[in-house]
Each structure stands twice: as C-alpha cells, then as structure tokens.
Amino acid sequence: MTPLLQVRNVAKLYGARIGCTDVSFDLYPGEVMGIVGESGSGKSTLLNSLAGHLTPDRGEVIFDTRTDGPVDTVTMPEPERRMLGRTDWAFVHQHARDGLRMSVSAGGNIGERLMAVGDRHYGSIRERAADWLRRVEIADSRIDDRPSAFSGGMQQRLQIARNLVTGPRLVFMDEPTGGLDVSVQARLLDLLRGLVREMGLSAIIVTHDLAVVRLLADRLMVMKDGHVVESGLTDQVLDDPQHSYTQLLVSSVLQV
Amino acid sequence: MSDYNFAYLDEQTKRMIRRAILKGLAVPGYQVPFASREMPMPYGWGTGGVQVSAAALTPDDTLKVIDQGADDTTNAVSIRKFFEKTAGVATTEETAKASIIQTRHRIPEAELTEDQILVYQVPIPEPLRFLEPRETETRKMHSLQEYGLMHVKLYEDISQHGAIATAYAYPVKVEGRYVMDPSPIPKFDNPKMEMAAIQLFGAGREQRIYAVPPHTQVVSLDFEDYPFEASKADHPCDLCGAEDSYLDEVILDDAGNRMFVCSDTDYCRSRRDAGHTGRLGEEAA
Fold it and tell me: How close A78 gets to chain B, by Cα (Å)?
C-alpha cells in the first residue's frame, strides 16, 4: 500500500534557531498520527511546514495525489499546492477565528470551499451546508447566523464542517480542543472520532493534551526542542515510555 | 488657454499614465498600479478619472462629463470647467458628439461608438477588498484565478435577501480571466459593458488603472439557479416616457408624491425634444 503522506528529513529553521529538524514518518490512509510535546517543541512549526503554510528549509513532503500519484508538495507549483489545500487537505486551527470568516454566515463559511472548486448552484450548496451543520450537531436553523453568534465549541465544530465539506483525505489539526472546557472537549472529541472513522480520514493532530491523542491517535510522535525523541503506537508510548522526556510528560498528567 | 500645461498634468506624468493605460488595455481587467498625483480636488471626487482623462485628451477632443448620468450636477460641472480652463478643449452635453466621456457611476443610454472613450471614476478598484482585506492575498488570488470568494458574497446576498441584492458595483469577469469591479455603476448597466468604445477606469487614491478594450467579453457573476438580472425601477420616465432607461426616484413633497426620471439627462432631453412626453412631462416643461 502506498503511504498517503511520506515525510522525509523535514527541517524548518528560524535563522540559527531550530524550528524542527530531521523529521521523517509515513502516514497511511485512514491512520491518525498524534504529535505531542511542550510549548516551543516545534510541533506547530512541523504541522505548518507539512500543510504548506511554511516552506521547509530541507526535506520532502510527498503526498499521494488522486491524479498524479506521489508528488513532493514542497516543490510543486503554488497553484497546485493551494488547490490541494482546498480539496484533499483540510486545516483545523486552534482558534476557530483563524479558520472561519467571522463576517460571513455559517452557510457561507461551509459553502466557501464548494464555491472555490467551482460549484455554482445555490440550492445544492445550501443543501450540503445544512447537511454538514447537522453532522456536526448544529441546528440547521442557525445556517444564516454569523459565527460570532456561536459559542466557542460551536465555532470549532463549524470550522470542522467547513473543512470536511469537500471530502478531504488528509486533515491537519492544530490543538483542535485548546481553549474549550472539558465537557465541550469531550463532545468534540467524540464527534471527531466518529467523523474520522466514518469518512476514513487520515489526520495529523498536534496537541499538548495526552488524553486527546489517547482517544484519537493510532500512532504518536513525541517532540522536544525540534527533534522527535520517541515514536510508536499510542498505547505503547503512553503506557511504556522509553525516553526520559516522555516519562516526564506522561507522569505530569494530573489524576483526578 | 491659460498658463497651465495642456490638461493640467506635466508631459512626463501623462506619459506615465498612458503607459499604465496601454498595459491595462493589453491585459483586460488587470489592475495596473500607477503613481497617482495630487489633484486640485479631494479624493473621492474623481481624481483617478481626471488623471486618466488628462492623459487621454488631445486638443481636438470634445469632452463630456457626467455624474450619476447627469451633466448638470456639481461634480460634472466642476470637472468640465476644470478641463475647459486647463486644456481649452470643446465640451458638450450630447453623448453622440463627445469623443471622451468621463463618468461617475453610469454608462450613457445612447450606444457608444468605436471612436469614443469612456473614462470611469473608481473609488475602490479591488472587487475582493471587503472579503479579503490583505492586498498581498488579493493579488495572489487574482494571479491564481481563485475567485470562489466572490461567490460567497453573492451567496450571502441570497441567503439574507432571497435574491442577489447587490445593485451596483456588481462584479464581472472580463474575457474569462480577471474578476473586475465595474465601479459603482448600477447593475442595469453591466450588459452594456460589451461595447464598441474603449473603457478606462481610474482610481486616484488607490493608485490603480484598469481597462476594457472594445468588444471584450464582460460576464456578470451569478449562480445557475439565481441568474444575473439587469434590474431597474419598474416605471416609465415621468418626463419623457422612456421605458428602457435607468431611472432616478425623486420625492416631490411630504405627501408621498414621487416621480421617476431618466438618470441620463442628455437622453431624456433628446427624447423630449423629439416629442416624447411622460406622465408629468407637460407640467414640468
């Protein structure tokens, strides 16, 4: 089986400082990869480099495209990379405000990606927007409300709907549950787990919350100071951490 | 004549503007940056249009200036006087006799010909501006033809008003390539943009010039199930009886009486001279 995403020796430097370096892994279709580490460990830099928001200084990010097979997205022409960003890729930001258009209604937010790939039928756009609102558990009577009238948890769910409407194959998530209270987090995680399984999505989830990766991720990478210090199956890494930093991380979780 | 250089601007400035105009004509709908000059009028009064007109004028030209279709409003009168004084060119109110027409927010009703130039005054040249505030991003969207966002605006219109409520500055796609803001003309005028005359657009404050060459395809954006409609007030003109012209609504008193008149004053007058009369035509004359 061809991996959906092959990452080879990716590095991003900020001048002399290391953002992240020597990162390599394969991601297979339907697989969810978690990336954990403390603040400043380079996990967001890595995610942005993979998603094309930042240009890596070294390395290859090879994506298995529908038409041309595996292609290095770092060197592919910008129009094609931006097209991937609207179709096969999705990016869920930590703050819903970064991923949503706050002055456009919920329906317009979901419809944007459809219109960006050429859908020009108002009725069908609206129908699919309403359908996706229901799938992320927002009443479709709210379709004409602006995201500013939504709660934090609803905004995050709206952002997910907006990203998944074009049926992407790979979703990048940057702290999708950050800043939400625990009960809302639980509901969002439940929803995400359902969608990932149902749609057969591959995902890369960056978080500092070990509970999130325990629930969602099949595999786990632990990062520290821009390097991957440990990787493996999620349960294996969390239950039997080998590296001293992973041991510290696991033992730092508060037990209630 | 006066002590001003012909048409106010110095020759180097006019050359610079002509280069921008030629580039604009070569790439229809593309916004060409230019070094807009301070003009002796405030921004928003047509500084861009005036500079384009000044660069296009020759001593043999006949100039017509309209503001919302009218020849006799402040803006039109002032700009006409400005060029009478600084260029000494002939001016006219008759559309057919003019070789250059500077306009604010209207296209004349009479069909324009191949030997005419229509100069638009543009407040905000970027059609994507209110959806995407970053200039770097809108330029990239133009260069990569990422115009899905324009339809998000039309989607919002339909979801809020049940129809595309954008009535002016209605976005168009030029020759299948660039999405362009036609300046705040009513969407009634959009179909007229596929015309024989050269159309030049000048935005002074925003420092952009763009152009539509003669007989260029100009398509108004829409949805398959909500097609573009060139709408106007559903009345005939109360002075000349015309049913095919764009109308202004004028409130007559505080008892609810109102009248509809052609916004193109030259068109209305020429029809009345030819003997056409509307509902209130006799009393007004």
Answer: 9
